[in-house]
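Write out this protein's structure.
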Amino acid sequence: MTTVLNPTRPARPETTPVTEPAPRIAIADPAALGLGAFALTTFVLSLANSGLIPTAGAAVIGLAVFYGGIAQFAAGMWEFIKGNTFGATAFTSYGAFWLAFWWLLTHPETEAAAGAAGIGAFLLAWTLFTVYMTIAAARTNVMLLSLFIAATLTFLGLTIGAFSGSAAIHQLAGWIGIATALIAWYGSAAVAVNSTWKRAVFPLGPLA
């Protein structure tokens, strides 16, 4: 008996070779850089604001543009690549804050035109931003939540000090700023050390 092939049946397509997807390039966690840049620049400025080292205000100018500004802004861009909305928003925004602050420091005519009320409005806007970032931080870890609470109090103190002209409140905000910087430094150290030691040497305190 002869088997007859069905001429109407389509020919079987040739097997298409399967191509492997291109491997994703892993990038380092930018949080260590972003937190470190925020911490160091905030620390130096707060030394001046608190009255502990008044001349630190002049030393912070370079830090505001290069480390707190550009380096932290770059950390925010890398957080975008990693898909971390919170980190990207925080680092990019505060990097821009330090660049704007550098502009005010290096353009006295702009600062003079803004006056105390204008500077107060500038700081108030950053206070409001930090408040809603604090709400977001409540779903991250203890370190970040503590950092944003402290940062909110720092901005709030500086805002009240600018509007009221109170040197005492301004100095108090400087002391809170030092605490803020120390918390951020801890977070930066935790990310850097934990990644190299491959274990939680410095715990961040995950939140439920």
